[in-house]
């Protein structure tokens, strides 16, 4: 029986990696992760420093989301370590929301965890949603929101409580064109405010806009294949 | 530990549960249907109806645990401890379960007229008490609703078909409640071990649920020097 290994290559780090390593807001080093026989990440390293935006791109199955989830602490790596300055805000690819609760109720639920009062969390949540043209007067249950609106709530929850590092896994899914453009403009604002931002993205649309915002693009590839067919 | 970190998750679970109107109706109707369907068998209807209430309360607990699982990881990442979320849900679901148990006890006391009505109420209350940690433990363990429901049907179904005097019945979670319910109609069954057995079972189930959610919780990241 043939086996396929899919270790990781990171490209685009270059000299910048040395700078980032000195004052990284988040640093992942020598990460290895496998599921059964399948190696998803092998000796992967990544860092972002305060005020920097990094885009992670790559084909399906390259391990982008796995790396981000390891950086957030949601998945334990087989080996390697992650260190962070401050708190991480994580926006998963699939909105992790309660279908029967409204956006305000989500903010209220997150409030005690973030050391905020209910009023503070809802107020800050409204401000964040308003930036994305979400109708904050609505108290609609999340199940009745459009995909894009759910994703805006998802993003607002990641930003709630002023994290120092933002990990965003394709956070604009379901956004219309205007919201997509607005998202990247917001990334620029967040980095200007001193946040370290890592965005996992399948494709980079509006390339010129993204290039203006992103400091580095890290491409992940399925680098080695030991399957006999692949060798051929 | 701040109480707010338990009460707010409990409040949000209550809001979520209250919005499941159809599910709440079915949760109440299900044990009632078991009770009504077995009224021809006299006092056994109390045992059947009482134990069948576990379908409702444990079922609700399983679904609450499973729907919360993806969000719980984010909540833990934000700063909740997994046991705080679990305690909040335990608290709310126990209150809900005891309300259902109270209503259902009145229905069965009026419908059957047991020899010891308070024992019946205690038995039904014990079913509610045990059902919540049972549901939370199953919900924490299984990957999907289907597996959870099958375990629920299996355990409660086996408990329903067994006499409380059988050896295997003593190892099932609702044995203590079954003894109390049996005693309420027959008045001859020893119930000394019923309460300690149910409390021990409930505590063990809750500990198991807490252990599983703790294992699944995000890894604390190392603070950069």
What is the residue-mean pLDDT of chain A, rounded to a whole number?
Answer: 83
Strand content of chain B: under 5%
Structural class of chain B: mainly alpha
* Residue fraction in strands of chain A: 25-35%
State the major sheet of chain B.
none
Oligomer: heterodimer
Radius of gyration of chain A: 18 Å
At CATH level 2, the architecture of the largest domain in chain A is: 3-Layer(aba) Sandwich
Mean pLDDT of chain B: 92
Give the SSE order of chain A as H and E letters. EHEEEHEEHHHEHEHEH
**Overall shape of chain B:** elongated
Describe the model.
The complex is a heterodimer of chains A (232) and B (225). With 232 residues, chain A is an alpha/beta fold. Chain A has helices spanning 14-22, 64-72, 103-114, 118-131, 147-159, 177-192, 207-213, 228-231, and strands at residues 8-11, 24-35, 38-49, 53-58, 79-84, 88-91, 165-169, 196-200, 216-222. Chain A has 2 domains: 1-86 and 164-232, 3-Layer(aba) Sandwich (Rossmann fold), CATH 3.40.50; 95-156, no CATH class. In chain A, the strands form 2 sheets. Chain A has a 6-stranded mixed β-sheet, with helices on both faces. In chain A, helix 6 (177-192) links the parallel strand 7 and strand 8 (196-200). The model of chain A is unreliable at 1-21 and 225-232 (pLDDT under 50). Chain B is elongated and about 70 Å long. Chain B has one domain. Chain B has helices spanning 4-18, 21-37, 44-78, 82-112, 117-141, 145-161, 175-186, 194-216, and one strand spanning 222-223. Chain B starts with a helix and ends with a strand. Chains A and B meet through strand 2, strand 5 and helix 3 of A and helix 1, helix 3 and strand 1 of B. Strand 5 (79-84) of chain A pairs parallel with strand 1 of chain B.
């Amino acid at each position: 029986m043939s086996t396929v290994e899919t270790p990781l290559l990171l490209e685009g780090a270059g000299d910048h990696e040395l700078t980032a390593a000195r004052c990284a807001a988040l640093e992942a080093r020598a990460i290895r992760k496998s599921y059964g026989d399948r190696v998803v990440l092998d000796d992967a390293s990544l860092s972002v420093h305060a005020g920097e935006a990094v885009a992670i791109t790559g084909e399906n199955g390259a391990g982008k989301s796995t790396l981000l989830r390891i950086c957030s602490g949601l998945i334990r790596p087989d080996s390697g370590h992650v260190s962070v300055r401050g708190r991480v805000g994580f926006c998963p690819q699939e909105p992790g929301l309660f279908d029967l609760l409204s956006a305000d109720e989500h903010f209220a639920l997150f409030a005690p965890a973030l050391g905020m009062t209910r009023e503070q969390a809802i107020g800050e949540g409204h401000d964040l949603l308003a930036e994305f043209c979400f109708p904050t007067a609505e108290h609609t249950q999340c199940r009745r929101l459009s995909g894009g609106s759910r994703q805006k709530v998802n993003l607002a929850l990641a930003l709630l409580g002023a994290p120092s590092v933002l990990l965003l896994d394709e956070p604009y899914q379901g956004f219309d064109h205007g919201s997509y453009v607005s998202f990247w403009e917001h990334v620029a604002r967040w980095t200007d405010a001193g946040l370290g931002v890592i965005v996992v993205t399948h494709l980079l649309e509006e390339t010129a806009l993204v290039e203006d915002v992103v400091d580095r693009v890290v491409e992940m590839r399925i680098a080695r294949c030991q399957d006999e067919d692949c060798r051929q | 530990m701040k109480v707010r970190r338990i009460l707010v998750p409990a409040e949000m679970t209550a809001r979520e549960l209250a919005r499941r109107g159809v599910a709440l109706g079915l949760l109440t109707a299900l044990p009632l249907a078991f009770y009504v369907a077995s009224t021809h068998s006299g006092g056994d209807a109390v045992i059947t109806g009482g134990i069948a209430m576990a379908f409702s309360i444990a079922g609700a607990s399983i679904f609450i645990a499973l729907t919360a699982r993806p969000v719980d990881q984010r909540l833990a990442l934000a700063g909740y401890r997994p046991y705080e979320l679990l305690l909040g849900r335990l608290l709310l679901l126990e209150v809900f379960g005891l309300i259902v148990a109270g209503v259902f006890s009145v229905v069965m006391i009026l419908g059957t007229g047991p020899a010891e009505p308070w024992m019946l109420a205690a038995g039904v209350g014990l079913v509610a008490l045990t059902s919540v940690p049972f549901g939370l433990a199953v919900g924490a363990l299984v990957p999907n609703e289907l597996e959870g429901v099958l375990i629920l049907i299996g355990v409660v179904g086996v408990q329903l078909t067994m006499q409380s005097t059988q050896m295997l019945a003593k190892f099932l979670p609702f044995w203590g409640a079954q003894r109390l319910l049996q005693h309420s109609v027959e008045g001859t069954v020893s119930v000394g071990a019923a309460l300690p057995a149910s409390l021990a079972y409930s505590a063990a189930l809750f500990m198991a649920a807490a252990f599983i959610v703790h294992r699944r919780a995000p890894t604390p990241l190392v603070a950069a020097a």
